[in-house]
Amino acid sequence: MSGKKILIIDDDPDLVEAVSMLLESEGMVPLAAYGGEEGIQKVVAEKPDLIILDVMMPDKDGFAVAKELSGMDGAKDIPKIMLTAVVENIEATNYSPHHSAMTLEADDWMDKPVDPRALVARIKELVG
Hints:
The chain is of the alpha/beta class and about 130 residues long. It contains 5 helices and 5 strands, in the order βαβαβαβαβα.
């Protein structure tokens, strides 16, 4: 598990910092992007082992990022964990976990605030 590069794409700097510290404590290498466009650029430049992706971001939401990555050679097979604060709250929108687009682009969905132990366990399952 040591040395795995994990890209966190989220517009919340506090969440990015907290998850980065968690990943470092587990021997992983955190990479940060604070929006969808920056995240796509980081994927191309850094070739992470896994992506943690926020759903709601102002420049390009997580669905658009995941869809774009799924069509890119070298990026389509990178596991993605989507984080959202709206999993249980918004059932009839594109941000619902039951929306068909959500099942196509991510390997897992986790609620915010994310349980650190559950996040690390899932990362290890996907790239361990």
